[in-house]
Amino acid sequence: QVQVMESGGGLVQAGESLTLSCTVSGLAFDLSAMAWFRQAPGKEREGVSCINRNGENTYYEYSLEGRFTISRDNAKNTLYLRIDSLKPEDSDMYYCALAGGPQDGSIYFGSCRFNYWGQGTQVTVSS
């Protein structure tokens, strides 16, 4: 059974930085593309960034490029998202996703289909 678990969210001040982490078990981590998504209450989940299996290729939602950095450590089965210069509008639930999973309900982002999800980690930025 695939398990995805995010951590690292919290309450931060605007202008600060934060690094989110995501660990995966139950599936070969280094064989899967991964991504970060975020979702505000009442809105659709939107892609933030994705990264290929070996970490050499990354993709960012164009409006977020520059302050967000995705990376992975395959030896630790861990995905990261660093967010710099946090803004109040970055306040969302952030989800880690693994490529693959059931077809129904999948979200397509970058060149991949994602449908293995964690429970999310809340980021709240105060002004």
Q: Would you mind describing this structure in some detail?
A:
A hairpin with a 2-residue loop joins strand 10 (107-109) and strand 11. By secondary structure, the protein is mainly β. The protein is built from no helices and 12 strands. Strands 2, 4, 5, 6, 9, 10, 11 and 12 form an 8-stranded mixed β-sheet that branches. The protein has a 4-stranded antiparallel β-sheet with strand order 1-3-8-7, with no helix packed on it.
What topology does this entry show?
Elements: E1 3-7, E2 10-13, E3 18-25, E4 34-39, E5 46-51, E6 58-60, E7 68-73, E8 78-83, E9 92-99, E10 107-109, E11 112-117, E12 121-126
Parallel strand pairs: 2-12
Antiparallel strand pairs: 1-3, 3-8, 4-5, 4-9, 5-6, 7-8, 9-11, 9-12, 10-11
- How many beta-strand segments? 12
Low-confidence stretches: none
Mean pLDDT: 93
Radius of gyration: 14 Å
Order of helices and strands: EEEEEEEEEEEE
Main beta-sheet annotation: 8 strands, mixed
First-residue to last-residue Cα separation? 40 Å
Shape type: globular
Q: Structural class of the secondary structure composition?
A: mainly beta
Strand content: over 45%
Helical stretch tally = 0
Q: In which range does the helix fraction lie?
A: under 10%
